[in-house]
Amino acid sequence: QKEVEQNSGPLSVPEGAIASLNCTYSDRGSQSFFWYRQYSGKSPELIMFIYSNGDKEDGRFTAQLNKASQYVSLLIRDSQPSDSATYLCAVKSAGNNRKLIWGLGTSLAVNP
Amino acid sequence: NAGVTQTPKFQVLKTGQSMTLQCAQDMNHNSMYWYRQDPGMGLRLIYYSASEGTTDKGEVPNGYNVSRLNKREFSLRLESAAPSQTSVYFCASSEGTAGNTIYFGEGSWLTVV
User: Which residues of chain A are within 8 Å of residue B106 when distances are taken between CB atoms?
Assistant: First the structure.
């Protein structure tokens, strides 16, 4: 059973700090990694995605992949109260062209 | 640009009733999906359609049927609703199925009493 695991949290950080969220995956052949943000009562929205060939930075967000340890991280710099949400990690494996495997999400609270 | 639109947003059903959730996307995407999301269970794939004219079962297809009406529309039908089907349902679409980003609709909150 291919799995994606996230610490459910809540992860609490002060405003302006760096929030670090992690996601571990079991399938070493995984190739695409997605981070979604979901506000309470809303649908998931894509923050960013990376492929197995490298990290990515987009504004305050950075996604980093550690293939050896099989985890992907999302760093949020200068955290804002508006970043308070649940962050979902999704992973697509090489041999599974139709489905993403989703983690249960990490709840982030940014305190003013 | 509406993206993925699903209706209705809220619905209360009695056990045994049937209903159809409608979904349409205007992004010219080939692939469409239906997920349900429950506390502690995360997002679970019910059915998907890799391209117009094809549908396949996901993780939790029992009690549901789907129709890919055309490239834009993908409906989910509950033939005989059960309380276990109380959930939030999300329709989603992507350009393809191989690693492409999935875009979600706003969700449909379904309660079966």
Answer: 42-43
